[in-house]
Structure formats: structure tokens, C-alpha cells
UniProtKB/TrEMBL annotation, chains A, B:
<feature type="transmembrane region" description="Helical">
    <location>
        <begin position="73"/>
        <end position="97"/>
    </location>
</feature>
<dbReference type="InterPro" id="IPR045009">
    <property type="entry name" value="CASPL-5"/>
</dbReference>
<dbReference type="Pfam" id="PF04535">
    <property type="entry name" value="CASP_dom"/>
</dbReference>
<feature type="transmembrane region" description="Helical">
    <location>
        <begin position="42"/>
        <end position="61"/>
    </location>
</feature>
<comment type="similarity">
    <text>Belongs to the Casparian strip membrane proteins (CASP) family.</text>
</comment>
<keyword id="KW-0812">Transmembrane</keyword>
<keyword id="KW-1133">Transmembrane helix</keyword>
<dbReference type="InterPro" id="IPR006702">
    <property type="entry name" value="CASP_dom"/>
</dbReference>
<feature type="transmembrane region" description="Helical">
    <location>
        <begin position="156"/>
        <end position="177"/>
    </location>
</feature>
<keyword id="KW-0472">Membrane</keyword>
<feature type="domain" description="Casparian strip membrane protein">
    <location>
        <begin position="35"/>
        <end position="164"/>
    </location>
</feature>
<comment type="subunit">
    <text>Homodimer and heterodimers.</text>
</comment>
<dbReference type="GO" id="GO:0005886">
    <property type="term" value="C:plasma membrane"/>
</dbReference>
<feature type="transmembrane region" description="Helical">
    <location>
        <begin position="109"/>
        <end position="136"/>
    </location>
</feature>
<feature type="region of interest" description="Disordered">
    <location>
        <begin position="1"/>
        <end position="20"/>
    </location>
</feature>
<protein>
    <recommendedName>
        <fullName>CASP-like protein</fullName>
    </recommendedName>
</protein>
<keyword id="KW-1003">Cell membrane</keyword>
Amino acid sequence: MYVSHPSIHPIEAPPLTDTAENALPRGRMEDIQGMPGTLGGLALRFVQFVFAVVSLCVMTTTSDFPSVTTFRYLVAAVSLQSLWSLSLAIADIYALLVKRCFRNSRVVCLFSIGDGITSTLTFAAACASAGITVLIGNDLDDCKENHCTRFETATAMAFLSWFAASPSFLLNFWTLASR
Amino acid sequence: MYVSHPSIHPIEAPPLTDTAENALPRGRMEDIQGMPGTLGGLALRFVQFVFAVVSLCVMTTTSDFPSVTTFRYLVAAVSLQSLWSLSLAIADIYALLVKRCFRNSRVVCLFSIGDGITSTLTFAAACASAGITVLIGNDLDDCKENHCTRFETATAMAFLSWFAASPSFLLNFWTLASR
């Protein structure tokens, strides 16, 4: 009996689905709400911007803030925070309009570094102002001569702006690390 | 002329080596110096601990620190930082002695959260103290009655402790994200 022995055997292809399934979640960045280019990210930027601007306005309406170095620093820090948040909010709106997400590693790195710097500066300013408001209000009990309520409000708003900025930084950093 | 049309064509197997090369660095965690269980990590813990203890000692030797809430908070924060850094330094020494690295995801997560909390508290305390020392030294120019130099030294040491704690947090967070 003659049985053909073909030189070319059909090679069983390794299952591609498994590899693809494993590779895909690593290769592509999932759309976690809060990342740049998502609605959550835009909401975070908006919250950061609003709280930073409110903090800036409340602090600048007090007449004696320039006499304290820390309050001047707070004004500078929340100004920077509001400008940064506004810029990234505009970038997010553009990304949402053209229905694209920021996938470029360099862009995410830039956003991450910028978020890290601005949120650290805002937090530092908020902590320093909190230290001084506590000193004036509790330790020296000197609220009659000072605008304690306004200082406290500006400090609280700066803290809230930092609270909204931290998730942006952590999510960007996470995205950068998990690429 | 008769030409055979085999129903089963030899399928070219996709190169497996490329996938394996891409998969390996993602699967295993590389030993970056500074991660828990490495010599760099132990050095970072040691630096954190030393600066936190120096800050604590300098601040507690001033007689009037309990009158300022922020300075009491600084003492609490650097105490926590020194205890945390000492604990993780002991864990690092153990890991180096048995020549193993911390690879468990939960352990890295715990270290990351702990580092995040302690370093944030230390940074907040350092910023608040810096605000007050600047207020006393520059704005009120009242260094004759206060231990300005000691307050400034304690604040600077707390900042240095935070500087050493940040890489630990960022590296742990990076490790957690890149798993």
C-alpha cells in the first residue's frame, strides 16, 4: 500500500488568541477615568482649577497678605496650579472633541512631571499657610487684628485643589510605569 | 496539467522569541537600587531615619516648642517617620541577610502606602514649620526671643528626611504599577 509522506506537514499554529489576550492589556493603555483625555480627567482638572482660583481670589482680597512671605508664596503656587490645570483642561477638551486619548509616552511623562511639581508646590503652600493660620488663630489667639477666616478659607481651598491634583499625578505616574 | 491544491497549507508559525523577549522584562521585577530588599533601599531608609531623628532631637531641645502647635506636629511626624524608616531598615537588613527581595505584591503595596503616608506627613510638617520659621525670622524679625537657628535646623532636617523618603515611595509605587 502506498502512503504519501508529504515533506511539508501542516504545522499547528500556536493559539494566537491567548498571546493576544495577554499582550493587549499590557500593550494598550486602558481608559481609566481620571487619565488625560477622559471625562474624569477633565472633571479633575476643572475641580483643581476652580479651587485654585477661589483660593487665589480669597487670599488676594485680604489687604495684609503681602506682609507675610508664606501667603505671597501661596498666591504664587495657586496661580501656577490654576494655569497648569487650565492648560491641561483645554488639552483634555481637545482630546475629547477629536475622540483621542493621550497615548504618547513622552506626553504622559511631561504631564506626570508637571502634575508632580505643581501639586507638590500647592501642597507645600497650603501646609505653610495652615501652619501660620493655626499659629495666629490658636497659639497667639490674634484673630481680631487678622483676617483669620479668609486665610483659613484660602488655605482650605488650596488643600482641596491639591486633593484634586493628586489623583491626576498618581494616575499619570501609574500609566507611565505600567506601559 | 494537474496541479494539486492542498486544503491544508503550511502555516508559518509566528516568531515566539520576540513575544518571550517582550514578556520577560514585564513579568519579573528588576532589582533597581532603592527598592526594598536592596542595598540602595537600606541606605535610603538609614538616611531617612537619621535625618528624622536629628530633626526630632533638635526640635525637642528647644524649651518653647510645645507652645506652637505646628512644632508639636513636626515632632509627631518625624517620630512616626523615624519609626517607620527603622522598621523597614530592619526588614531590608533581614532581606539582605537571607538574600531575598520583597517580591510579594501585597508587601510592596503595604510599603508603598506606608511610605506615601509617612512622607506626606513629614513634608506637611516641614512645610508648616518652614512657614513659621520664615514668619518669625523674616516677617516679624523676632529671632532674639526665639530659637530661630534650632527651628530652622529641625525644619531642614525634616525636609532632608522627606527628600530621602520620596524615592522609596516612588520606586515602590513604580514597582507596584509595573507588575
